[in-house]
Automatic annotation (TrEMBL):
Source organism, top-level taxon: Bacteria
Pfam assignment, any one: Acetyltransf_1
Domain N-acetyltransferase: 1-133
Protein name: N-acetyltransferase domain-containing protein
Amino acid sequence: MIRQGGHHDLDQITAFDGFAGCRSTEIKDGRLTVLEENGNVVGFIVESLKGLLGRPYIEYLAISHHYRRKGHAAKLIKAVEAKHTANNLFISTEATNTAMLSLLKKEGYKMSGQIANANLSGADELYFFKHID
């Protein structure tokens, strides 16, 4: 089930959340959506508060290690897409994240640009968009 995240989800999210930022604030702002399976939060997605240049932007997407490669990330992306029809939806990932790059290609996202050496690892950050009809 895909639903808005709540503060009661934080313990489960923390177990697989590798991102900076405050999930509690994102929950309070209504920007965090979770994917629940058998009573367990197995993934989450966060929309940016201000977007990217005023357009919708997916800020974070994470799936618990044991639930990866089962279509859960695509389900969360589609849930956000459903909110933003007749618009371009943006998302980014590190150039070294081959699983995410593959997913974005499969879901019809097109390269929009990149920022060299943007990440602490030195990897480029690649930006993608999809026009949502």
